[in-house]
Amino acid sequence: MEKSDIGLIGLAVMGQNLVLNMADHGFSVTVFNRTASKTEEFMQGPAKGKAVLGTEDLHEFVKHLKRPRRVMLMVKAGAPVDDCIQQLVPLLEAGDIIIDGGNSHFTDTQRRCDALQAKGILFIGTGISGGEEGARHGPSIMPGGNSKAWPHVKPIFQAIAAKSEDGAPCCEWVGEGGAGHYVKMVHNGIEYGDIQLICEAYNLLKARAHLSATELSDAFSKWNQGALDSYLIEITAQIFKKLDVDGKPLLDKILDVAGQKGTGKWTATDALDRGMPLTLIGEAVFARCLSALKEERVAASKHFQGPPASKDGIAKAAWIDQVGQALYASKMISYTQGFMLMQKASEENRWNLNLGSIALMWRGGCIIRSKFLGKIKAAYEHNPKLTNLLLDSFFEQEIVRCTPSWRTTVSEGVLHGTPLPCFSTALAFFDGYRSAQLPANLLQAQRDFFGAHTYERVDKPRGQFFHTNWTGTGGDVSSSSYNA
d(Cα 465, Cα 470) in Å, to the nearest integer? Predict the structure, then answer.
C-alpha cells in the first residue's frame, strides 16, 4: 500500500487549500473530514487528479500515513481540537506527530504539548496567516512545540510557505511549547492595530479633505509605493474602487459595525498580564467594541454636536502626505509594542524567540506582510540584543522625521472631532517612552498615602522601599508586598 507524506483533518476552506498547496509541491496527502460528504465533494472537485487520498474513518486515515505519521488538524480552536486529539492518540505510536494549524490559544497549545509528550507523541502548534489565498499559494507559517518534530515537518512547511524577496521561506521554527501560537496571536494583534490605523487615516482624509472614493484609492495607491507598502494598504486601495450594482462605492453601503474573533483581545489581555504597555492594540480592540454600539451611537449623535465644520479650504496633496506620515509613525509604535511583548514573553517562558526571524516570517504570505518588516529584520540583525525598535538608528530617524506631521494630524483630528484612538495613543506612548520623568512619583505617593504601598526614592538605590506616615495618624506599618 502506497502511503502519504502527511494527513490533514478538517476540510473547510483553509484545510482544502493547504492540501492543494501540499499536492502542488509534490507531497501526497491523506484527508479526513467528520462530514463524509465534504470529503467526497473535495475528492471529486478541487482534489481530483492530485496525489490526495480521501478516507471515511480515522482508522483508515492513520493506516495510510508514512511513519512517523504526520497529522495536521485544521479544525475549530478549543474543544474540537481536544476531541480530535483524544480520538487520534489510541491510533498513533510514539514518535508520531500531531500539528494544530488552527487559531488556538497558546496556553492550550502548551498544555497539549506537555500532555502528548508524556505519551511519546510530538505536538506542534502552528500559526498560519494569509487567509484562503495564502493557504493555497503560500502562507506565513509559525510552528512551535516539541522541537523533535521539526525536522520531520520542515521540508513540507518550508516548501508550501510564502517566500520573501530573497527566496527565503516565510517559515522557521519559533520555539518550544506554545511559542508558535503565541507569535501568531501577536501577529493578529498587530493586524488589529494596522487595520484600525488605516481606518483612522481613511476617516481623516474623508472628513477633513472630503476625498472622493477615486481620490482615496489614488492616495492609498501612492502610499503603497513608499514606506507604507503593504498588503493591507494595497487591498484598501482596491476596496475604494469597488462599485455596487448601482454604480456607487460599495464601501459606503457597508454598516460601520466591526466584528472580531478574539485574538486581538487575547493579545491585549496577555500584555496586561505581563505588565507591558500594548496601548495601541488595546485601543484597536476597544474601537471595534465601540463600533458595535451602533444604536447608542446614533442616539448620542442627536444629543451631542461636534466642533463646527471648518470653512477653511485644505490642500489635499499636503494633507494626504501629512496623514501618511502620521500613519507611518503610528505603525512604527504598533510594531514596537508588539515586539516588546514578544521579547517579554520569550524571557518569561524561556523561548529564546528570534525576533529578526519572526519579522522575516511575516514578510510574505501573511495579512500584515509589508516592506516595513524588512527594516525590523535588519534592526535585529544589526543588534540581536536590541531592547526596543525605537532605539534602532533607522527607526529613530524615521520617527523623528514624521513627528511634526504626526502631532499636527492628531491635533487636527481632535480639533475637528474626528476620533483617533490609535493615532493618539501611539503618540502618547511615544511621548511617555521618550520622557525621562513621568508623574508616576505622585501616583506612588497617593498609593502610599491611602494603602501604605511604599515607594522608592531618587536619592537612594533602586530596590529600597520607604513608607511615610502622611497624616501623622496613619502609623508606620507598610504593605507586605510591593506592586508597581
Answer: 15
Of 2, 50, 184, 206, catalytic? 184
Render pLDDT for 251-263 as a digit per residue (tens, 0 to 9).
999 999 998 877 8
pLDDT of residue 67: 95
Q: Which residues pair with 73 in a beta bridge?
A: 9, 100
* Distant-in-sequence, close-in-space partners of 149: CB < 8 Å, separation ≥ 6: 97, 99, 122, 123, 124
Residue recorded with cell 501623622: 472
CA 110 to CA 125: how far, in whole Å? 8
164-199 tens-digit pLDDT? 888 889 999 999 999 999 999 999 999 999 999 999
Mean pLDDT of the chain: 94
Per-residue DSSP letter, 243: B
Largest CA distance in the chain: 87
**261 noted as active-site residue:** no
Angle between helix 106-117 and 179-209 (nearest 10) = 170
Query: DSSP for 54-121?
Result: E-SSHHHHHHTBPSSPEEEE-S-SSHHHHHHHHHHGGG--TT-EEEE-S---HHHHHHHHHHHHTTT-
Cell of 82: 481536544
Amino acid letter at 264? G
d(CA 423, CA 324): 11
Cell 460601520 sits on residue: 256
pTM over 0.85: yes
Do residues 112 and 85 make contact, with C-beta atoms less than 8 angstroms apart? yes
Is 415 buried (19+), middle (13-18) or exposed (0-12) by CB count in 10 A?
A: exposed
Find the catalytic residue in 66, 119, 148, 191: 191
Coil, helix or strand for 235? helix
- Residue type, position 155, single letter: P
Average pLDDT on 284-304 reads 96
* 308-316 long-range contacts, CB within 8 A, separation 24+: 309/416, 310/208, 310/416, 314/208, 314/209, 316/209, 316/211, 316/215
d(CA 482, CA 337): 25
Contact 97, 124 (CB under 8 A): yes
Q: Is 119 a catalytic residue?
A: no
Question: 171 in helix, strand or coil?
Answer: strand
d(CA 314, CA 207): 11
Of 245, 248, 244, give the one whose Cα is nearest residue 214. Answer: 248
